[in-house]
Design goal:
By secondary structure, the chain is an alpha+beta fold. 40% of the residues lie in helices and 31% in strands.
Length: 435
């Protein structure tokens, strides 16, 4: 009885093992099918049909509203490395011509002014002293000159008595006349020389006084220049503070100047836009550069003023700038009839209608490819998607008008070769994971 029981247990164990193996095989197949299904979906190419109709070539961009002839308020050259802002108007605040917009700390300049005024007062006293010295020296030299004249006359009177006097005394009188003549000549020279010396001393002190006056005037003007006033009516636009930011890197958000901030001399701190001449500054893509020309009409809508648009025209087109993968150029649009509700810095959307083409054959711009100077599309044929050369008539960011292709044909929206290569890599990776 024991042998059949053992045999039965062996058969039951084998049945359980086979059942588990079948379940594992079925689950593996289901996993394989589930993993293969998304890969097949990814191999599908996005396609579109060639269309015919009216195509409006337009250029769209986004810019910022600015004053046409903005008045820029710049930190003055005050003889110091940094200037501290002690008064600053609020951004967007309305000011009239002559109103104070910005004031800088004048502590050092006021100290310099007091020093210069003290130097001026000292120089004035030096001039007064030099003039008094000149007058006293002039009086002394004139007195010495008159004394020399009197001595000469007395000596000449004594000489008249020489015939009646002994020869020795007569000779002494002659010598006395010669000595008096020499003293008179010396007094004449002293009178001229001391006058010239005194005048030169006064001129030196007067020059020092003029220098002190210039220093005082310069300090006064410097203090006045540290109060920046508006020259015209407008709204205050506070500019970003690039001085306190330290090292500036791409994409960094710069805060505007605030009360207590420091600025370097020559830095632009604020702007007052011209309320009569509004402009929009926008960066337009490099591909649209050939569509634009100066004077073209532009439709401008301001994001903050929903449902309202403004007519304008292209005022100027700048040079191309930016990274090689994101080339653009600055375009300035002048508004023909600005409104009083406009404010500097408002975001504006621009639409420039370049041209309208009737009965045009066109495809989305993503379906047009370029290589080695030729334009082509990937046209669907019996052999699959094949390159097909076309002639580009016009192109915008969203549409490309072509010649050399028929309406209704199917073209690929991406490169089939790159798509198939990517699908092959994904399938290989999925197979490796299944193994």
């Amino acid at each position: 009885m024991k042998k059949p029981t053992a045999l039965r247990r062996i058969l039951i164990s084998l049945s359980v093992v086979l059942a588990l193996a079948a379940i594992a095989t079925l689950a593996s197949r289901r996993v394989s099918k589930a993993a293969a299904t998304p890969v097949a979906a990814k191999t599908d190419l996005p396609t579109t049909r060639v269309k015919k109709g009216t195509v409006t070539i337009s250029v769209a961009a986004r810019g910022e509203l600015q004053g046409g002839n903005s008045e820029t308020l710049v930190a003055p050259m005050a003889g110091v490395d940094t200037l501290t802002i002690t008064k600053l108007r609020e951004p967007g605040e309305l000011v009239a011509a002559g109103d104070t917009v910005i004031e800088f700390d004048t502590t050092q300049q006021e100290y310099n002014l007091r020093e210069a005024q003290a130097d001026q007062a000292e120089a004035e006293q030096q001039v007064i002293q030099a003039e008094a010295t000149r007058d006293s020296t002039k009086e002394e030299t004139q007195q010495a000159f008159r004394q020399a004249q009197s001595d000469l006359k007395l000596a000449e009177l004594e000489v008249r008595r020489n015939p009646l006097l002994p020869a020795i005394v007569a000779r002494q009188n002659d010598l006395a006349v010669e000595a008096a003549q020499n003293r008179l000549h010396q007094a004449e020279q002293d009178l001229v020389n001391k006058k010239a010396n005194a005048d030169a001393g006064i001129a030196i002190q007067a020059a020092a006084l003029n220098k002190a006056k210039v220093t005082v005037t310069s300090n006064q003007k410097m203090i006045e220049s540290m109060t920046l006033k508006a020259k015209s009516d407008g709204y205050v636009n506070i500019l970003p503070n690039t001085f306190s930011a330290g090292i500036i890197f791409w994409g960094m958000q710069l805060l505007p100047f605030q009360l207590g901030d420091t600025a370097r001399p020559g830095m632009a701190v604020a702007q007052i836009p011209d309320m009569k001449n509004w402009e929009v500054s926008a960066n337009v893509g490099e591909l649209d550069r050939g569509h634009l020309s100066q004077g073209q009409k532009v439709n401008v809508t301001v994001v903050a003023l929903a449902g309202k648009s403004f007519a304008g025209h292209i005022k100027s087109i700048g040079g191309t700038a930016g990274n090689p993968w994101d080339r653009h150029f600055e375009t300035r649009i002048a508004l023909d009839q600005p409104g009083p509700e406009l404010r500097p810095g408002m975001t504006s959307n621009l639409v420039i209608t370049v041209e309208t083409i009737d009965d045009a054959i066109w495809v989305p711009s993503q379906a047009l490819f370029e290589s080695d100077g030729r334009n082509f599309v990937y046209l669907q044929t019996a052999r699959g998607f094949m390159p097909h050369d076309v002639t580009l008539v016009r192109r915008s960011e969203s549409q490309a008008v072509l010649k050399g292709i028929n309406e209704g044909e199917t073209v690929a929206m991406s490169n089939p070769d790159a798509q198939s290569k990517s699908s092959t890599q994904q399938q290989g990776a999925m197979t490796a994971l299944q193994k």
